[in-house]
Amino acid sequence: MHAIIENLPYMLGGLPYTFGLAVIGIFFSFFAGALLAILRLSKIKWLHYPAVVYIEVTRSIPLILFIFFVYFMIAGMGYNVSAFSAAAIATVVFYSTYIAEIVRAGIQSVDGGQMEAARATGLSYVRAMKKVVLPQAIRRMVPALVSEFTIIIKESSLAMVIGVPEFFNRVFITNARVLTEPLALLGFAALIYFIICYVLSLLSRRLELRVDQ
Amino acid sequence: MNSGLDWQVIFGPEGRHLLATGLWVTIQLSFYSIVFSTVVGLLIAMGRVSQSAVLTPLRAVLAAITEIFRNIPLLVHLAFWNFGIFGFAWVQAAVHPATSLYSLQFLASICALVTYRCSYVAEVFRSGLQSIPKGQMEAARATGLSYGKTMRRVVLPQVARIVIPPLGNQYVGVTKNTSVVLVIGVKDLVFQAYQIESVTFQVFLAFGSVMVIFSAVCLLESAALNWCARWMDRKWGGAIRPAGKKQVSAVTA
Asked: Rounded to a whole number, what is the distance in Å from the CA of A36 to chain B's nearest CA?
């Protein structure tokens, strides 16, 4: 207990990095993911297949490899990149493919008749997508996006491997320094993550109920 | 940094050896974790769908466990097992026979991967079990089959076909999750890539080759699961699809 109280400000000081990484991650990967999803749903072959390959291959590679790759690649090319930005780029590259699948499922969950009816009234494809299909799709995607946000918060702890001073990295360092209270310190980390993620998952479930109505 | 690509780094005798040993560790880790998380997950799911009133406290405990385990990052599981539980002298003594084969860190990694993944697997099995109409169980029991036999012969074969696709995603997830064990010093593929990179500075080749290996392993794994699903369809007829509206759900990493 003593170790937790003594290092509390230091450890909790990592939470802004954790949340920063997660917010930047979900924000940019939503737009990248939406683009990928639209490419994947496209009927034009040379847009469809590259998107499929990119999504499937990226989804079969662990995030940690992207973090290492991005960080060392950019640093190796001679640019000065902070560990945080490298981790953020890796997160966006990685999670955009997951969000692409959510967006795709969202668009596909909208009944095909909606698009046909909108087109029949004279709207163009882009306008029908923007005004009719996407608003319905996004409403259905929100719970899944909140869950994905929870997952990104959890996975942002991986950024510790390149030294981003986020929450778990600080707990890890504290634990290595104190040495005598691993159960208390790591239990504390588990508790904090549990509270954050549990609240978000409750939110996601409530949104799901509202969407179902 | 060396700008040219030095393919010797991964295809030379030393590089090949490092990558092969790393791959072997990764495969062992994912094999054990998949097996144990399937067993633990199935047990949790069967406990959670049980009907008897005596088991109500058990159901509450299992529900709490799944909820807690899945909301904690894998790295925390890993550190907790490695520094916390495997730090006790009596735990080290208890697993002592196994340490002639595997290091303590390796065992801690398997435990962490299983506790993290079993809650996801349990949810997959639970929704599979709940999607089987109650009438199946009742009809089978009415014909005189015991509970165990009904489960084995009637319910589980139907569940198996429903859960294989989502279970496949979980298995691929396990294989990808094994990559974090380098944090506690298990010499898996990513660890070897890191080693190769830190000696040769060939970032692209070191991490690129491991990315290729990982995607090959994961794609093979999902192909195997697909084949398995088709084999079951051939054996028992087409898969039943759970009724209900298709929901947009998050994808676990």
From this structure: 16
Is the complex ipTM more than 0.90?
no
Residue A168 near residue A157, CB atoms below 8 Å: yes
Would the CA dihedral through B1, B4, B10, B15 be positive or negative? negative
Residue A83 φ then ψ, to 5°: -60, -35
SS3 call for B225: helix
Residues B70-87: tens digit of each pLDDT: 899 999 999 999 998 988
Distances in Å between the Cα of A156 and the Cα atoms of A25, A131, B92, B139 are 9, 35, 31, 49
Q: Which of B248, B249, B252 to mutate to test the interface with A (most CBs of A within 10 A)?
A: B248
Q: Furthest-apart CA pair in chain B: how many Å?
A: 74
Note whether B81 and B116 are within 8 A (CB). Answer: no
Q: What is the pTM of this model?
A: 0.88
- Ramachandran angles phi, psi of B164, nearest 5°: -60, -45
Tell me the backbone φ, ψ of residue A13, rounded to 5 degrees: -60, -15
For residue B207, give the nearest of A65, A144, A148 by CB distance.
A65
